[in-house]
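FAQ: What does the model actually see?

It sees only this:
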Amino acid sequence: MFIPVTTEPNKILHTMGREVTPEEMRSREMKKFVKDMIETMYIKDGVGIAAHQVANPIKVCIIAKQFSPINNREDLVLANPTWEKLSKKQIWDHEGCLSVPNKVYGEIKRYTHIKVKALDKNGEPIEFEVKDFPACIVQHEVDHLNGHLFIEKARNLKPLVD
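And it is asked to produce this:
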């Protein structure tokens, strides 16, 4: 079921998310919520989505399957994700966000190689490395879970011209 996307300005988008337990991740309610988040992400043409973006400030996000560093046949569900840089190399890239109205994009600097620790969709601990664009997606979604939008760090913000 589609969930309306929360857009800026909204206090939830600037709230630190609450960590979830492994038991919560295994619950029927969370499984439905994750399924609805995934449907919403694809309807809105996103490559990732955070729970904050559907008005639920918990530390859960999704990475679209085509960018999953683990299994590109399945959307990657991350709960309580953290990351650390594995390289000092950073790139400037264009980013947008489902929660920023008017299709505003900007240039943002992200690390190109990171290690991620999280709980998976079943509440089990996972750890993996990710590089390049998928690494940028993870960093963007983790920013959401910590109450930050890309527009706080980006330069050259402007609406996308179709």
